[in-house]
Design a protein that fits this description.
The protein is built from 17 helices and 6 strands. With 490 residues, the protein is an alpha+beta fold. Helix 8 packs antiparallel against helix 9. The two termini are 39 Å apart.
C-alpha cells in the first residue's frame, strides 16, 4: 500500500500499455497524429503572413515550412496562401482523426481487457481447490468480478491515455520550439511545476483509493452475509443491526469518493489557472519576446490546444493512481486463485473397479481431526451406505472420494490408480451427486432440469416432472409465463 516512486510508476504504465490489447495500433496512431500536428500547425504562420504581410514574412515562410518545403521543391511548386492553407488543413485534420481513432481503440481495448479479466477470474475460480473456495469470502469474490476487474481494465485505459496525451503535449511543445525556444523553456518550467504538484496530489488519491477498495470489500461482505442469512436476520429482528453496519460502510465510501473528487477538480483548476496566467503573460510581454502577430497568434492557438491536453494528461495520471489499488488487488486475487488450483492427474477412472481407502488420515485446516486411520472399500455396482451421527465424517468420506478433499496420509485407490494420479473429471463425469443443501441456479425450471444435459428431448422433461410430482403444477401455470427460480431464495 502507498504511492509508487516515479520510476516505479513509469514501469507500471509501460507494463499496462504492453498488456493492453492492440497497443501497437494505439501507439502508432498516436505517433502519426503527433507528427501530423508538428508538420501542420507551423504552416499557419506563413498562411497568416500571406494574409497580413510584414517584413519578417519572408523569413517566417522559409522557417516554418519545415519538411513540406522539400516536398514542394521536389515538384517545383511555389508556396502560396491557398496551397499552404489546404496542406495545413489536411495535416491538422489527419492528426485529429488519428487522435480520435487511437482514443476509440484505447476505449475498446479497455472493454476487451475487462472481458478477459472476468473470464480469467471465472475460469480460475471454477478450477480452484475446494477447501480454498470454502474459506474464501463470497462478497469479496463478487466485488472482485464486478468492480475490481472493471477498475483494473480502466487502469489500462488511463495508462493508454497518459501515453496519448503525453504524445500530444510533446508534439505541441515541439511546435512551440519552432516558434520560440525561450517560450518553450518557460512553458516546460511552468508545466513542470504543475506536473510536480500533480504527482503529489496523485499519491494522495492513491492512498484514498486503497481505503476505498477495502471499504468496498467490507460492504460487499456485509451484504453477502445479509443475503445468505436473510431468513434468520428477518425473523430475529436483526436486519436493522446488519443495515447499520452496511450504512456505515456506505458513508465511509461516500466520504472517500468526495475527497477524491475534490483532489481531481483541484488538479483541473490548477492546470487551467497556470495556462491562463502563462498566456496572459505572453500577450503582455510579446514585444519583449520579439513575437510578430503571426507567431503570437499561432503560439496562443497552440497553447489553447496544449492546455486541455495537459489537463487531460494530469487527470488521466491522477485517475490511474486511483485505479492502481484495484488493479493490484484484482491481480493478487487472481494470483491466489491460480496458486490454489485443484491438482489433477491423467489416469482415467474405471467405474468397474473397487474404490478403496488405505490407512487414510484427514484433518480440516482448523485442526479438527476426522480420520486417524480409515480403511474402507466401495464395491462397484452395489449400494454402500455410511451411517453415523453428525460430524463423524460421512460427508467427508464422499468429498474424499470425489477428490474435493485430499488425504494428509494414506491413499485412496480407484482400482489400481492412486488418488494423486486420477483424472478427477473422469470420475465426476460418472457421478450423480445430491448434496445436503438444495442446489438451484438462477433461471427457469427447465434450466435447472437440463443443467447437466441440454440436449434432452421435451418428452423426457415431462417424464422427469411427472416422476417428481411437478407436472400438474407446471401445466396449471398461465400460458407463456416462465417459471423463474431465484437461487438466492434457498
Amino acid at each position: 500500500m502507498g504511492s509508487d516512486s516515479l520510476f516505479g510508476k513509469i514501469s507500471l504504465i509501460i507494463h499496462l500499455i504492453r498488456t493492453t490489447p492492440r497497443y501497437p495500433l494505439i501507439i502508432g496512431a498516436q505517433l502519426v497524429s503527433g507528427f501530423a500536428s508538428v508538420l501542420g500547425l507551423p504552416l499557419l504562420v506563413p498562411v497568416l503572413n500571406f494574409m497580413n504581410p510584414d517584413p519578417a514574412g519572408a523569413i517566417s515562410q522559409q522557417v516554418y515550412l519545415g519538411p513540406v518545403k522539400y516536398i514542394l521543391d521536389a515538384f517545383n511548386v511555389e508556396p502560396n496562401f491557398y496551397l499552404l492553407l489546404i496542406v495545413a488543413f489536411i495535416l491538422i485534420v489527419t492528426g485529429q482523426c488519428l487522435l480520435f481513432i487511437s482514443s476509440l481503440l484505447a476505449n475498446n481495448a479497455q472493454t476487451d481487457a475487462l472481458a478477459e479479466y472476468r473470464k480469467k477470474i471465472f475460469t480460475a475460480y471454477s478450477k480452484a481447490d475446494w477447501l480454498w473456495l470454502c474459506e474464501n469470502r463470497s462478497g469479496e469474490m463478487n466485488y472482485s468480478v464486478l468492480r475490481e476487474a472493471e477498475l483494473a481494465s480502466v487502469a489500462h485505459l488511463n495508462a493508454q491515455r497518459v501515453l496519448i496525451y503525453t504524445v500530444q503535449v510533446c508534439a505541441l511543445l515541439f511546435v512551440t520550439i519552432q516558434l520560440s525556444w525561450p517560450i518553450t523553456v518557460l512553458a516546460i518550467f511552468v508545466y513542470g511545476i504543475v506536473a510536480w504538484l500533480s504527482t503529489y496530489n496523485s499519491s494522495q488519491v492513491q492512498k484514498f483509493s486503497y481505503q476505498y477498495n477495502e471499504q468496498h470489500k467490507a460492504m460487499s461482505n456485509e451484504f453477502a452475509g445479509m443475503q445468505q442469512n436473510k431468513k434468520f436476520l428477518k425473523t430475529s429482528l436483526l436486519s436493522e443491526k446488519s443495515l447499520r453496519r452496511i450504512f456505515g460502510q456506505v458513508e465511509n465510501i461516500t466520504t472517500n469518493v468526495k475527497i477524491q473528487n475534490v483532489r481531481i477538480e483541484m488538479q483541473n483548476t490548477l492546470t487551467a489557472s497556470a495556462t491562463l496566467i502563462f498566456l496572459m503573460g505572453l500577450m503582455f510581454f510579446h514585444q519583449q519576446l520579439s513575437l510578430n502577430y503571426s507567431e503570437l497568434f499561432l503560439i496562443l492557438f497552440v497553447f489553447l490546444r496544449l492546455a486541455p491536453q495537459f489537463s487531460s494528461l494530469s487527470t488521466a495520471y491522477v485517475s490511474l493512481d486511483g485505479n492502481i489499488p484495484m488493479y493490484r488487488s484484482m491481480h493478487e486475487r487472481l494470483k491466489s486463485l491460480l496458486e490454489h488450483q485443484e491438482k489433477n492427474g491423467t489416469k482415467v477412472f474405471d467405474p468397474g473397479k473397487i474404490i478403496r481407502f488405505d490407512d487414510v488420515k484427514f484433518s480440516y485446516p482448523n485442526g479438527k481431526k476426522i480420520f486417524e486411520s480409515l480403511d474402507v472399500s466401495v464395491e462397484p455396482r452395489q449400494t454402500t451406505a455410511f451411517i453415523g451421527g453428525s460430524g463423524v465424517g460421512k460427508s467427508t468420506i464422499l468429498d474424499l472420494i470425489l477428490g474435493l478433499l485430499t488425504p494428509q496420509g494414506g491413499q485412496i485407490l480407484y482400482g489400481d490408480v492412486r488418488h494423486t494420479d486420477l483424472d478427477k473429471d473422469s470420475l465426476r463425469s460418472k457421478v450423480a451427486y445430491v448434496s445436503q443443501e438444495t442446489t438451484l441456479v438462477d433461471g427457469t425450471l427447465r434450466d435447472n432440469l437440463l443443467i447437466g444435459g441440454m440436449d434432452i428431448l421435451e418428452d423426457k422433461v415431462w417424464d422427469i416432472l411427472q416422476k417428481v410430482g411437478l407436472d400438474q403444477s407446471v401445466r396449471e401455470m398461465p400460458p407463456g409465463q416462465p417459471l423463474v427460480i431465484d437461487a438466492s431464495a434457498n
